Structure formats: C-alpha cells, structure tokens
C-alpha cells in the first residue's frame, strides 16, 4: 500500500476505511474528531492514492492546483500541504473557493485560466513541489506542459486526464496515448493508472520534469 503524506490517514467512516485529512469541513463530508473523509469518488487525487499511485507527496509541500473548481479536493490538499495556489477560471466556483480559503490561511484562490500561466506567474512561487491538475478542458496535456515552468527540478506533476474532455467520440485509450505523448515534451512519465471504479474514463498520471 502506498505511503500516505503526513496529515493524511485512513479512518473509519460509515463502517469502512477511508482516506481522511484534518481540517474544517467544507461540503458536508463525514467527519470524526476533526478528521474529514476524503472521498475518492469526489476527488481525482484521492482516487489516484486509492489506486496505488505513488504521488511522491510527503506533506508540507508547496502546491499549484490547476482546476480547483469550488474547492472540494484542494481543501483536502491544503489540509496537509504548505502554500497551496488554487487556479480556477469560472467566477461562480471561485466564490465558493474564497469561502473555503477563509478557514485555511495557506490556501490562495486565483481567478485565472490555467491555459495562461503568464497571468499568474507574478503570484505563484517559483519551484513549487507539486502541480495537481484536474482541468476539464480540451488540451489537458498542453496545460501541464505550459505550467511546467513553476515546478522544481525534482517536483511532481499529478494529473487526472479526462478522456471525454478531449474527444467524446474516440476510444479513451487512444486519447490517453496522445495526452501522454504531449506530456513527454516536458515530463518524464513515472506511472499511470486508470481511475475506475472511482471515475470513468480518467487516467491518473505521475510525472516529473525532464
């Protein structure tokens, strides 16, 4: 079983062992003595952990999170990480994200487009330890390539590639192959894993800069 980052544990919720982080609740998730259930069915990163991928996260890292939406997963990431920059381009989810950040001093919401990293380069620290990516847009691999500038030399890209966001008519495996080929322009791909049964037609990818 993959080692969990410091600040992440397996705890019993509803009679089964589930991932959990310690922090203020955000979206009505089950809690137990300050711990909050981190549901792999609602979080691609949790699904990557549950699928056995070695994320390389130890806890306390500086993280750039691309595709933060309303803050479900990034709130858990901020629970066990250091400075966490949360990029989301849709104004409505960012309003929720700002509310999540009120309880987490290390979480910094950015109303920006992850496809345009130059628009937030003046805010995000250089050489972050990890990029976590969950963007539901065409060109997901290109987003990761464009944001590689922020990642330190031995950092990690943890990306969830959604086949249906690229092309609903193609076989997901073909979509994944193309995405991995694009990623290899800037990254060495260390491991991949399909994220079923938690998320259909998603591929979890762990990579590091070349």
From TrEMBL:
The gene is flpA. Its EC number is 2.1.1.-. S-adenosyl-L-methionine binds at residues 72-73, 88-89, 113-114, 134-137. It holds the Pfam family Fibrillarin. GO terms for molecular function: methyltransferase activity; RNA binding. NCBIfam families: PRK04266.1-2 (NF003276), PRK04266.1-4 (NF003278). One of its GO terms (biological process) is methylation. Interacts with nop5. Component of box C/D small ribonucleoprotein (sRNP) particles that contain rpl7ae, FlpA and nop5, plus a guide RNA. Involved in pre-rRNA and tRNA processing. Utilizes the methyl donor S-adenosyl-L-methionine to catalyze the site-specific 2'-hydroxyl methylation of ribose moieties in rRNA and tRNA. Site specificity is provided by a guide RNA that base pairs with the substrate. Methylation occurs at a characteristic distance from the sequence involved in base pairing with the guide RNA. HAMAP family: RNA_methyltransf_FlpA. It comes from Halorussus aquaticus. This is Fibrillarin-like rRNA/tRNA 2'-O-methyltransferase. It comes from the Archaea. Residues 7-20 have a biased composition (Basic and acidic residues). PANTHER family: FIBRILLARIN (PTHR10335:SF17), RRNA 2-O-METHYLTRANSFERASE FIBRILLARIN (PTHR10335). Belongs to the methyltransferase superfamily. Fibrillarin family. Residues 1-31 are annotated as: Disordered. Keywords: Methyltransferase, RNA-binding, rRNA processing, Transferase, tRNA processing.
